[in-house]
Design brief:
289 residues; two-stranded antiparallel sheet; 2 strands; globular
């Protein structure tokens, strides 16, 4: 299944109905959750996993077990450590931007640079810690400046509320994913992707109307509609987290190279930034009203 996060979908962590490039540059084909004996045996096409079931027989749990420990393979400790470093960079630069009272002009420039660095990393074939940390640093400047502005002129405490909301969503999704309350299936993936495409298109149309017609465009970012779309944005971010958790889990089970942990950290950071910004928008609307 292919992740909604382009960071994962360009790597061997993707598993959809078509062919995908494996971690070793070999072709992997087939969806392990699709119908058919061969498709239900993920080890038949994964160059890093070892076969634990008879050919043509699905794994009893419907997902691959963890691969035996191998040197140079991604582990959950690697993902946690790289995610901590990446998010730590975001937090440090955001705090610096807040303390230094960075202007909105500088914040917008930092956001544009962060976006460029993110796209460069997304389209690279290998993880670049320098690019990822560079993105985190500039994204942190943007988040710190915009949070300081909203906290000062929209509502005192909105930034901390957005942080707590993001942490709560992360913890809740992680718990529900580990307990299998949330099950990432092909249907789940298709639904989330369709909802995300529709959401982004509507926000893009709203932005165009706001630029050329003035005001708030179609009103998707103010009043009752704004609150509704703010909640939808947070829910979509939570769904992205579930998809990202699944891709990390599969990458570890399939024996992804250790450098892929940087991509996992990058992808999770992108999703958490999305959720935080949606919380900021939602709280700003509520405080304005």
């Amino acid at each position: 299944m292919r992740s909604s996060n382009p960071v994962f979908s360009r790597r061997g962590l993707s598993r959809d109905g078509g062919a995908a490039t494996g971690f070793a540059g070999q072709q992997q084909a087939g969806n392990p959750y699709a119908a058919g004996p061969a498709a239900n045996n993920p080890y038949a096409t994964n160059p890093y996993a070892q076969q634990t079931a008879a050919p043509g027989q699905p794994h009893p749990q419907g997902a691959p077990p963890a691969a035996p420990a191998q040197t140079g393979r991604m582990t959950i400790d690697d993902v946690v450590a790289r995610t901590g470093i990446t998010l730590g960079t975001v937090i440090v630069t955001a705090a610096a931007a807040w303390i230094l009272n960075v202007s909105l002009g500088v914040a917008i420039a930092a956001a544009l640079i962060a976006m460029v660095l993110a796209f460069v990393q997304i389209f690279k074939r290998k993880a670049s810690p320098a690019l990822i940390l560079g993105y985190a640093a500039f994204e942190g400047v943007f988040l710190g400046a915009i949070s300081n502005y909203l906290n000062s002129y929209v509502g005192n405490g909105v930034a901390m509320q957005a942080v707590l909301g993001t942490m709560a969503v992360f913890a809740a999704v992680l718990f529900m994913y580990k307990q299998r309350i949330i099950r990432v299936t092909r249907r789940f993936y298709k639904f989330v992707m369709a909802a995300a495409i529709g959401f982004i298109l509507l926000m893009g149309v709203n932005l165009l109307f706001a630029v050329f017609a003035g005001g708030d465009g179609l009103g998707f970012r103010s009043g009752g509609l704004g609150i509704l779309f703010g909640v939808l944005g947070v829910v979509l971010g939570a769904a992205f987290l579930a998809l990202d958790f699944k891709q990390v889990e599969d990458g570890i089970a399939y024996g992804a190279p250790r450098e892929e942990s940087w991509l996992a950290a990058f992808g999770l950071t992108l999703t958490l930034v999305w959720i935080y910004l949606e919380f900021l928008r939602l709280l700003s609307i509520l405080n304005s009203d």
